[in-house]
Amino acid sequence: LAGEVGDELNQKVYIVGGFVRDLLLKTDNWDLDFVTEGDGIELARQLNHKIGGKLTIHEKFGTAVIKLPQFISIDIVTARREYYEYPAALPKVERSNIWSDLFRRDFTINCMAIALNQDNFGEMIDYFGGMKDLQDKQIRVLYNLSFIEDPTRIFRAIRFAARFNFTIEKSTCQYIEQAISANMLEKLSNDRIREEIIHIIREQDVLDKSLQMLNSFKIFKSLDPSLTINSMVIRKVKNVRFSLEGFRQLSSKPFNQTIVMLMQLISEVDTDKISEVLKKLIANETLVNSITQSMVKRRSVYEILSQEEVDRYTIYTALKPHSDEALIFFYNDSENPYVRHYIAFYKLKLSSIHIKITGKDLQEMGIKPGPIYKMIMDSVLKAKVLGTIYDRNGELEFAKQK
Ligand code: CTP
């Protein structure tokens, strides 16, 4: 259909990139990228007129996206050439043809296109040897400066190599090493690094491969010298998904899996460096602070909970200050059966306990406001957690006795 619209507008249309790669790999991919040698926005309008999706136009970039049900997404761009004013900059763009559009891309396996116009429908366009690299199972850049111009491609190379179980071709490896030695990663904003790391850790099935590759290129070290990722950390990061599955049985609230994985990823960082490292990986400052608090306290939590008998109130006070994500992290990280048991017990039986009486109630009982209020409230809470009182009446009675 896109080809037909192209014919009507007298412009060449191609489907390119990940879709073509995944088609050859016989993998589903519903992110369709169309490139046209002509007006991309007009093509998108006409195409959407026929298929009735939700069209969003980005005039400034000459691009458009059509969203269809079932997460099908169609990106339409005008063929363009990109050039970089300086290394690691965002690229400048100008209109061009399919060759230049493919040449601006990252790896040969992502640089293939299939023609969609009637006169050459289905013709495979493979200027850079993508098919051969797919057969040889390798990730190869098109030119030596690729990683210097766009250092995020270092992460992408690793992500694709891990995902498809490919190797990174020898010269491409050298270009990665050169870019890292030239400190190109430092030129990337925290936002861009964060996005790439998150893309990588979301591909959980192949995490051991991707993390090992990141390690062997010393990428974690260049991101932050205190970021140690050893085989134990890799194993634990991989286990996060199982710990999460366990937690889903205990609570219907959704958890932020990425946060748990990031916590585990930085678990060997020295306590005084945690906050600094986290800031590179998480944008929200309040979240960084709360995660730092939990990570700093984790050893003392493990110590309290790693005993055969711990009373309910001790469990409650040890775990109450922490978010669900931190609890899952403790569960996964400690690997201690007692700690795990008490965390699950807390989540199931204790986490929702809170007191109902208020300062107003105490005032009505004739107690003068002061530090005594906190003492009474704390002991009411303790009695409730320990199970000696149950309801509001019990709370009031208990407070009176105090
Ligand atoms: N691309 C690039 N350099 C980048 C990011 C993207 O050259 N830093 C190019 C790639 O050639 C890619 C295309 O832009 O094919 C679209 O990017 P993206 O959607 O991220 O790639 P996919 O290959 O579709 O990746 P995924 O399968 O993970 O969605």
From TrEMBL:
<comment type="similarity">
    <text>Belongs to the tRNA nucleotidyltransferase/poly(A) polymerase family.</text>
</comment>
<protein>
    <submittedName>
        <fullName>tRNA nucleotidyltransferase (CCA-adding enzyme)</fullName>
    </submittedName>
</protein>
